[in-house]
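Posting here for the record, re: zinc ion.
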Amino acid sequence: MSVIKAVVIFIIISLTTNLRSPNANIYYQIFILSYMQFSSKLIEEAVQAFASLPGIGKKTALRLVLHLINQDKQVTEQFTDAIRNMRRNILHCEVCYNISDQNVCTIAVIYGEIVV
Ligand SMILES: [Zn+2]
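Prediction output follows.
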């Protein structure tokens, strides 16, 4: 499949579909999965990022990206903020090495109070 033919098909789909309708995403998804031609470098990078997660293939990654595009920007930003904050601030407990928000987790504190 040549790139030109793929682009022509995409243009036909775009012209015959209301791009704000829920079906537009399905057509877009079918187009991308059929020809692996992304209309946006930003979408392609986001799909690659999701597809790097365990258990997430390219098809699922694209579905997630298109879902996020359809959300309000505020909802998507809350999603990305949650991941960014988690990654920046997560710690391992100094006592038991459990994943924690603090240097010493609540389990270690409670256990320390019982033992001491
Ligand atoms: Zn701990």
